[in-house]
Structure formats: structure tokens, C-alpha cells
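Reviewer 2 asked us to include a model.

Predict the structure of this chain.
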Amino acid sequence: MYVINYVIYIYKYIYMNNLVEFYIICYNNLFCVEFQIKTINAFFKDPYKIIIIDSNCGEHIENSIKKKEICDKYQIEMITLPNELSGKNLWSSIILGNKLNYVYHNIIKIRKPKYFSFLDQDFFLFKPFSVIEKLDKYGMYGDVQMSNKWDHKMETRKNFDWVLHPWLSFFKLDFIINEDMNWLPIENFDTGGGNSSIIKKKNLDIDNYWIRDLNKGVFPWKDVSNSGPSPYENQYFQYKDKKIYGLIQIYNKTFIHMLNSHMLDDPFNPKTAWCLGFLEHALNYS
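Predicted model (C-alpha cells):
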């Protein structure tokens, strides 16, 4: 019995110390919370732990209550961000950057998971996926965000600064723990741009991180989309009194990014119904 218990202890120790911890910042949405839990449980193949970050920051109290109920239902940890991070009247990219910085510096660096991920609440797995081998080799994995100065020519990529976009990013903590990580936007970059100087300092080869060739965008409602601002008229469709961004992104044939998740709680929204059908199909045939 002692030997069996010892083996179980060692197994649990190794397992618990090799987890990928998902930190998913969720704002005023229940659809995304439940389907992040369902899809990670179904498709992520490395040891993992899901942490839902309630980022309502004192707003949408009823949503926070229901969010906690969903987490309790699936036995998922939920952490609530302080109200002062609400960032009223700030640019949304700055609000998200502040929240990411808080989670990293006040939670992740204290918990010290071996690996962690920032994943947008509407960025879902739909195929089996493993990342630890990549993280052990390269330190990080995700969607490369290029400087706005890039001329979009593949042969010039290495001449411009870049970062990983926090909507899809995985890190080995030891790879960045001694760096001054900063997920705020900066000139020529969206959220996460503050880390571009660290990428440059480490002299990382972009070829080891580039997966954009495997990514594509689709517009399922293109034929009925005509309400966007010029020159993007055919990228938005009208639903009730709202203009809905019709783009859906497929990453590496493994992740689907719904975009505009703040509008995805309405079950009659065509984009919500499409997303629900896509994810349910993936889950049913997993």
C-alpha cells in the first residue's frame, strides 16, 4: 500500500508541476465562459488547469454571479479582478493591457505555473492540440503580431519588430520570468506591444514562431453584409439595431476566433448561432 501511495504521490507531483494554466479574461459573456471550458476539456492534450478571470470589475453583477455558477458547475477556479481595473472611458486595448498586466504580475508570478496561456474569451480550440513540446523548445507559442510598419511582404518580416498577440499566446514561465513583461499597447502595436523590446532583446527568430501562413479569415455573411464603414462595407451585417462584424478567423486549423464576443450572448444573433453550431459539431465529433 505504501508503494502504491508513493507512486500516486509522485505522479500527482509531476502532473501538477507540469500544468499549462489557462488564464481567460472574460467580460460580460456567459457563452464564451462555458464553451472555453468545454472545448479545452475536449481538445487540449497536455496537463492543464483553467482559470476564468471575471473582468467585469464591479459592472454587470448578474453576469458575474452566473459566471461563478458556470465555473462551480464544471469545478473551475474563478478569480475576480479589482474594480479599479474597469478602465472606464479608456481605449479598450489599454483596458485589456492593464488587466493582462495585473494577472501576470499579481497572480501568475506568485502562482508560478511552469507554463501558462493568455487566450481571448472567444478564441476556441476545435481540434486536438498539444503545446508543451513547443514551449520546451522555443519558450513561447502563439499568433505573431507584427509592427504596423511592416509592409506585409514575407521576405521582410525579419526587418520589423513583433510580439505574440495575447488573444492566442502560450509561455514557459522560466523563459520570461526575469523580463519586465508589459501587455499594454504601444506605438505601432495593439495590446501586448509593450513586449516587443523583450523579443528584440532575446533576438528570437520569427521563423520559429510564425504560424500565420496556416491562418485564414472567412465571412459567412458576406452576401448580406453591406453596413460597414468605408471601405469595409461588406464586412459588417445588420442585426436589429447593431452592426455585426462578420469576420471569423481560423488559426492553424486548430483554433477558431469569433471576434466581437461582447455580442455573442444573444442566441438569436446569427453569429452566435453559427458559433454555437460550429463548436457543438466539433465537440460531438471529438
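The chain has a mean pLDDT of 91. The helical segments are 2-16, 31-43, 61-73, 92-111, 132-138, 173-176, 196-202, 270-284. We have added this to the supplementary material.
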